[in-house]
Input
Amino acid sequence: MLRDNIVKYIKDHGIKQDYVANGINISANAMSSIMNGKRDISAEEYVAICTLFNVSCDYFVDVQSA
Output
């Protein structure tokens, strides 16, 4: 669910995967794997994503799935 909320946010806001990957200091392949559910997001990556998007760390936990 957490990954799904992050993926939805990225897609809804038209954010490029490369931008996120660069912003959180991971490879484009690692970001693609996260987006496709083939790799889990580490705690450090999650905090970096929240920082990059300027949201609190509970933002993606509290988002209601549509």
